[in-house]
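Hypothesis: this fold can be encoded by more than one sequence.
Test: take the structure tokens below, design a sequence, compare later.
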């Protein structure tokens, strides 16, 4: 007990705090010299267990988790990360006690107000806030604050903070598929084509009937040809009386079929053209860099319905044993260093493959 208090007192002394701050800046500067993941996601797990182990209220544990988030965001944006996505509240969390859910909602409102009032971090790095999830599940007063926050930071274009609240990946994928179906159920815009096939057929047939009617009228004026014309008139009266009327093959069940271009059937997008890119464009993260690094704290090794669609073959997933309120640069730094090492190794392998391929091509050409 005395040793822990002594350790805390030493770390909080001004000289030690200054030295730690300088060391942090030095390490972050060293990180910027190598490749940096452009999109990092966090599952902020362990707030309740931290509160229980430290014998404090659960809401206070979530409050300390928010402070940890502020520290991590500064490290991310300072090192060059462009997009940070955090799992703030799952739709499944509504199954928890009403006391805890109301406490989380109230805390979110307070912390969001603090970000706006003292948003030097957001302004310094040009961060815009986006809230991903089912907004209709959020209380109206909190939803108004969220919309105000997103609007106030919408002009910031250097980095993005995605707050998944309330969110599940299954719900996101379902919503994306539903919106895709809606888009593909809308007819394509009709393009008027002057030389369309149906228009040409209709014009030629009308002209042919007009010429035939004119010939019959000329024969009817001549007495010598009246007898013959009577027979011809009786067989073609349905055609000559209305030369511009639609032909018989356009009459179906007593109803006239419009052969004009405007009556062409609606055309719809081909469902076969739906690809993963189409679905990706309907996700909440559409237009953002691919997810390169996903970190979950508390030692639990599962994704808990988070970023399932965005986790592709090149996404590195890391599970840490520390609880989220304990997460800071000293836990984050080894993860980034290992990610950089893996990325450099992959780049070296790609360069080796390209050099071998070039040597083979040159050997064949010679």
């Amino acid at each position: 007990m005395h040793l822990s208090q002594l350790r805390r007192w030493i770390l909080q002394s001004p000289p030690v705090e200054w030295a730690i701050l300088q060391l942090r800046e030095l390490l972050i500067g060293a990180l910027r010299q190598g490749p940096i993941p452009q999109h990092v996601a966090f599952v902020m797990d362990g707030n309740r267990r931290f509160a229980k182990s430290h014998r404090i209220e659960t809401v206070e544990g979530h409050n300390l988790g928010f402070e940890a988030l502020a520290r991590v965001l500064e490290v991310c944006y300072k090192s060059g990360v462009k997009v940070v996505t955090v799992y703030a509240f799952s739709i499944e969390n509504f199954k928890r006690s009403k006391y805890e859910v109301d406490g989380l909602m109230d805390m979110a409102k307070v912390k969001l107000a603090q970000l706006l009032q003292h948003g030097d971090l957001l302004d310094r790095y040009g961060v815009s806030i986006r809230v991903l999830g089912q907004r209709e599940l959020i209380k109206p007063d909190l939803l108004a604050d969220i919309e105000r926050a997103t609007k106030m930071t919408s002009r910031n274009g250097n980095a993005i903070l995605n707050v998944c609240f309330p969110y599940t990946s299954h719900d996101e994928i379902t919503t994306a598929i539903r919106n895709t179906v809606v888009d593909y159920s809308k007819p394509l815009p009709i393009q008027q084509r002057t030389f369309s096939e149906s228009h040409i057929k209709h014009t030629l047939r009308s002209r042919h009937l007009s010429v035939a009617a004119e010939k019959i009228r000329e024969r009817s004026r001549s007495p010598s040809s009246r007898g013959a014309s009577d027979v011809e008139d009786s067989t073609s009266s349905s055609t000559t009386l209305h030369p511009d009327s639609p032909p018989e093959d356009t009459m179906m069940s007593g109803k006239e079929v419009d052969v004009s271009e405007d009556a062409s059937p609606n055309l719809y997008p081909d469902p076969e053209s739906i690809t993963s890119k189409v679905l990706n464009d309907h996700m909440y993260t559409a237009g953002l860099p691919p997810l390169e690094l996903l970190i979950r704290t508390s030692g639990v090794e599962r994704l808990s319905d988070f970023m399932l669609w965005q986790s592709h073959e090149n996404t590195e997933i890391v599970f840490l044993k520390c609880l989220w309120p304990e997460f800071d640069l000293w836990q984050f730094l080894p993860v980034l260093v290992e990610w950089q090492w893996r990325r450099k190794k992959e780049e070296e392998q790609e360069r080796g493959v390209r050099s071998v391929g070039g040597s083979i091509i040159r050997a064949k050409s010679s």
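The CA atoms of residues 250 and 262 lie 15 Å apart. The first helix runs from residue 2 to 11.
Hypothesis status: open.
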